[in-house]
Amino acid sequence: MRKILVLALMLSATAVAGAGVPAPIDAVDPMIGTGGEGHVFPGATAPFGMVQLSPDTDTGCQLRECYGHAAGYRYEDPTIQGFSHTHFSGAGHSDLGDVLVMPQAGSEVRLDPGDPRRPGSGYRSRFDHRSEVARPGYYAVTLADTNVRAELTAGTRIGVHRYTFPAGQAAHLVVDLRSSLYDYPGKILWSGLHLRADGTVTGFRETRGWAPGRKLYFAMRFSSPLKGHGFVDRDAAVPYKGFQGPGRGSDAVAEKLGRALEARLDFGVLDAPLEVRVALSGVDEAGAVANLDAEPGGFDAVRARTAAAWAQALGAVEIDAPAPMRRTVYTALYHSLLAPSVWSDADGRYRGPDDQVHVANGFTFRSTFSLWDTFRAEHPLLTLVQPAETTADIVRSLIESREHSPYGILPIWQFAGRETWTMIGYHAVPVIADAYLKGIRGFDADAALAAMVASADYAPYGGLGEYMRLGYVPIDREPEAASKTVEYAYDDWTIARMARAMGRKDIADRFERRAGNWRNSFDAKTGWLRARLSTGAFRTPFDPTAINYGSDYTEGNAWQYSWFVPQDQAGLIRLLGGDRAAVAKLDAMFDYDMSKLDYSHAEDIAGLIGQYIHGNEPSHHVAYLYTYAGAPWRTQERLGQIVTSQYKPTPDGLAGNDDLGQMSAWLVFTALGFYPVAPGSNQYVIGRPFVDRAVLNLPGGKRFTVIADGLSDTNRYIRGVTLNGVAIDRSYIRDEELRAGGELRFAMDARPNTRWATDSAARPFSMSTSRR
Questions:
Q1: pLDDT of residue 13
Q2: 374 lies in a domain?
Q3: 394: exposed, middle or buried (C-beta count within 10 Å: 0-12, 13-18, 19+)?
Q4: Of all residues in the chain, what percent carry a pLDDT higher than 90?
Q5: Which stretches make up the Glycosyl hydrolase family 92 N-terminal domain (predicted)?
Q6: How confident is the model over 628-641, as a mean pLDDT?
Q7: By CB neighbour count within 10 A (0-12 exposed, 13-18 middle, 19+ buried), where does 596 fall?
């Protein structure tokens, strides 16, 4: 009966969308982006899961050489070191790789990973991509050196391994608590292993890396009883005297504490595959055990539940398109649904930014907030393709993080409840404002606004004190000052928008004034955003093509950042000299001759089209800016250029880091034909569609259909647009129009329509031309 139920669930999760058309879950290819600079992992995870169970191909790199292995796995690598339980999807930096497990077969058990250039020198193994299978919630590979078939699946807080060992050979597992992505010196502060009387192995480790003082606990159970074990400390150094973790409990029969722990687990010769159930917790080992109990069942049952969860999540969008585009877009949607990840335990407990345990009452606490990246398109997409409760949980998590923060501000770049202070801005603010302005509730709006204002007024952070005093961030007091000025100004505008909607005129008026601060760093004489000194002078010498970390800009230069005024593109265009001048400058950006420039020293600069850098976020809205200058057909041309060159259904199919879903969310929106240039405006700027038909199954049961009549490689321009059968001559749609359901229909043509939506009244929102 159980096998019949599991089979039924799996069949329902992979039911075809139509005759001969794969279901969304079958259209996803998790290998896309595992090569090149995509930095995504191919392993098993549930939507927004706490566990990301995936192979690691190289965890021994030195810190400055690890960039290409930020996700643990890199398609080009020839060996697998093991399977660990935590990974980032597409980050430009890393940590994690917790609780690495590696099966071994036979009489010899190696405790070191060995040299990837010397087969057999350690427990790592060679593998062949032809033996790999990667699907949402499932990964499998054959380890060539031991002939062990490894299969992985995952639930929300658990990962399940299944290992099929060669007949007649003894089965062993090595659990290596030393292993970690990015080899920070002295990263492992303390760790522990416990074998309990019922055969459960539990443990913990505290690490210092990207996130300081991160604590993680695990519990592990097996489908076959242990025949033997060994807990080994590979470090003879003096024990760490700080966090000690739990001592041996009354049910523990063995224990080992130390900085460099490994477990050797022996199972003898098995007559069936070995299943290993592993749960994580940020709270304690008891929490990990409870999480293990909260998701019962063996490998097939967990896999079926997660497949059904993925089928439901991916079914939020129905896509008709040629197979390569459909596969690329559905994979992008999949990558958009991996973070922010669950961080609270099944009982609601979680470890917060203050390193204390708290309880999430009535919601699921989430972490992994790459906010500088994801405020742009990732979070706006979630408001459309996920139930409102998901975004409400995200907002409540941000608010609670602020309440438990030692600094009293919202997260900047948080994971595992810990702040990393990575990147700039206070971009939790637009995430909250965008949700509120779209009518999403389920959180305390007054507490949210208070948190937003507190973050914007926290003078010690990133030159904010000088920004509030001078109206800009001075470069002689704070690095990357030009970027910080314009990003703060945008965030301030979203505070004003939410405050205005809540009837808080005092706050709205103050932050609307601050939202105009972008002008204070814009040099109208040269047409560039530039860094200013505290004296008021622009810093010299000035080179708009220069990209250096810690310089005037953040991961970019003047070419990209001079366009970052999402809240007032009309004001920017006027400063540039009007529509023609703006279009000419946009063309100069895309057409720039890069033959004499070398940006190889900057890790995140990838996917170049002239000075347009699609592999990094500051460029993501720029192609849509032709529309603000009255030339929407030029947006349509540039989008075709970007999609064609930056995305493809291959391992190197992402031009740059996916950055926790932002690169992917950009493609999902763009494929549908519109994009949220200014989250908080409640508008989507029309670009052009890249799929023949799509249906958004919206929260609340409404359906919004996009149809592109005559779309082809030749017919790449918009001739006209209708909304619910009525022709529209504006270059945007409103969020409330989309959420009401209906039909957006594009008539495509081989020639650009240079008259459609060009009038100034037809253009998207800008604060200087809006009546609010």
A1: 43
A2: no
A3: buried
A4: 88
A5: 28-281
A6: 98
A7: exposed
Are the C-beta atoms of residues 50 and 87 closer than 8 Å to each other? no
How many Cβ atoms from other residues are within 10 Å of residue 609's Cβ? 20
CA nearest neighbour of 419 among 390, 398, 438: 398
d(C-alpha 440, C-alpha 387), whole Å = 10
Q: What is the pLDDT of residue 63?
A: 53
Residues 297 and 336 reside in one and the same domain = no
Do 244 and 338 lie in a common domain?
no
Which residue type sits at 659?
A: D
Dihedral sign, Cα of residue 585, residue 587, residue 590, residue 591:
negative
- Give the number of other CB atoms < 10 A from CB of residue 644: 11
Axis-axis angle for helices 569-576, 579-590 (nearest 10): 90
| 217/336 same-domain check | no
- Name every residue whose Cβ is closer than 8 Å to that of residue 51 and which is 6 or more positions away in sequence: 45, 85, 86, 154, 155, 156, 157, 158, 159, 278, 279, 280
In this structure, is residue 78 part of a structural domain? yes
Same domain membership, residue 336 and residue 224: no
Contact 157, 51 (CB under 8 A): yes
pLDDT of 215 strictly over 50:
yes
481 assigned to some structural domain: no
Assigned token pair, 314:
């991916």
Please give the backbone phi and psi of residue 35, each rounded to the nearest 5 degrees, phi first: -110, -175
Same-domain check for residues 213 and 337: no
CB 742 within 8 A of CB 735: no
CATH classification of the domain holding 298 = 2.70.98.10
Burial of 697 (0-12, 13-18, 19+ CB in 10 A): middle
Nearest CA to 445 out of 384, 498, 496, 518 is that of 498
- Total Cβ atoms within 10 A of residue 548: 11
Q: Which residue has the tokens 């060539």?
A: 144
The total of structural domains in the chain comes to 2
Q: H-type helices in 548-659, by residue range?
A: 558-561, 569-576, 579-590, 625-628, 632-646
Relative to beta strand 732-734, strand 683-686 is: antiparallel
CA distances from 38 to 34, 196, 622 (A): 6, 41, 21
User: How many angstroms separate the CA atoms of 609 and 595, rounded?
Assistant: 12
* Model confidence, pTM: 0.95
Do 38 and 106 share a structural domain? yes
Q: What is the DSSP letter of 21?
A: B
Query: For 46, which DSSP code?
Result: -
Q: Are residues 188 and 259 in the same domain?
A: yes
The answer to the question of residue 576 being in a domain is no
Range of the domain at 229: 2-312
Tell me, yes or no, whether 281 and 231 share the same domain.
Answer: yes
Look over the chain and give the mean of its residue pLDDT values, rounded to a whole number: 94
